[in-house]
Amino acid sequence: MNLLDQVSPFDPIVILTGAGISKESGLATFRDPDGIWAKHKIEDVATPQAFAHNPNAVLDFYNVRRAQMNDADLRPNDAHRALGALEEFWPGEVLLVTQNIDNLHARGGSQNLIHMHGELAKTRCNDCDEIIEGLGNLTTDMACPGCSAVGTLRPHVVWFGEMPLQMDRITSALSNCRLFMSIGTSGNVYPAAGFVQEARSRGAMTIELNLEKSLSASAFYEGRYGPATETVTGFVGDLKSRAAE
Ligand code: BJW
Hints:
Helix content: 25-40%
Largest sheet: 6 strands, parallel
Order of helices and strands: EHHHHHEHEEEEHEHEEH
Distance between the termini: 18 Å
Bound molecules: ligand BJW
Radius of gyration: 18 Å
Number of helices: 9
Strand content: 15-25%
Structural class: alpha/beta
Strand order of the largest sheet: 3-2-1-7-8-9
Shape: elongated
């Protein structure tokens, strides 16, 4: 049975992406041998406790990554652009849920987009919860533009132990989708790693597009393995043919 035979052009699609889709643009993944967690300990930079105990180290970690994202040479790759095009040509709803905090999906043309782990371009105040865009590098002596508290500004990202964003909307979309695609994510981090089971239990077809089998690989109906610029453009091409039938 061909997976695409089970999907009609007006069916809703949910796509989950992770760090692997931005790798060919030049951003590091987390858990590959050359990844971010090979150079930094999670408990030093990606927990609320780390920010409480050593805010400078946490802010520096994200200041460096923000500078990488804003580098003039960093661009969306063919996989980001293919997903932007999919939203344009697919007659049904396409919701893109990314775990990535970079801005490459929006720059690749995706508009129906949820950043479930937050956005590097945004800052949040730990006191008043105001979200501010475009502040750039953060330091502990900065004051919140909303409440004037000093030392409370943090990147608007989701650390371990914190609730990912827009979970109600994501859960509802997973219940209603007919096709669930997972791209460039290792399946280590929940709740994202459980989305395939949620979608599948509600009758969706499921496909994984990754460099190698993820921890969740056995839960997918189909897997295509290789660099995202090849597997995503290939599969989106198949969807374009299906939409034209
Ligand atoms: C390519 C490629 C190419 C490479 N082409 N592919 C026990 C059981 C279940 C859950 C828990 C548990 N104990 C604790 C938890 C909860 C915890 C968790 O999951 N822990 C696990 C480690 C066990 N989760 C949380 O705390 C989350 N919150 C939460 O659960 O709230 C409660 C809740 C309850 C009920 C419902 C809902 C919520 C919050 C998680 C926050 C994650 N934060 C981070 C850092 C912040 C953002 C940042 O700094 O960027 O988010 S961690 C990091 O991992 C980052 C990523 O978004 C996330 C996922 O990583 P990703 O994207 O999968 O990257 P990699 O590197 O792991 O994989 C890349 C893949 O790409 C690889 O497979 C490569 O092969 C592939 N690849 N090149 C295609 N060219």
